[in-house]
Amino acid sequence: MARRLLLLLLWVLIPAASFAGLPPEQPDEPLFQQSSIAPEDFAGVFERVKLSEPSTEKEFLWLMDALDTASSAEEAAGLLPASVYQQQPDVVALIETGSLPPAQNLTTTGESIPSTPAAGGTLLPGYPGPYGFHTSNPTNNWGMPNSRSGGCGPWFIRGDGLYFDFRRACYQHDLAYRWTPVDRLSVDLRLLREMLYDCSLRSPLTIRLCAIRAGLYFTFVSLLGGPSYGATLTPGYNATGTPMVWPAPYSFCAQASHVWVYTDGYGNRVPRNKSLYFTGVVRQYSRVRYQLIDAYGNVALQHMTHAAQTNCVIHHEQERVSASVLPNGIYQVRALFTPWETEQVTVQNLGSLEIFSPTGSTTCNQNSHAWVYGAQSPITVGAVIYPIGVVRRNTPIYFSFVSQTGGPGYQHTTHAAQNNCVVNHEPEARSTAGWTPDRYDIYATYTEWETDQVVTRPVGVLDLRSSGGGGGGGGDCLRDQCE
Question: Which pTM does this prediction carry?
Answer without folding.
Answer: 0.69
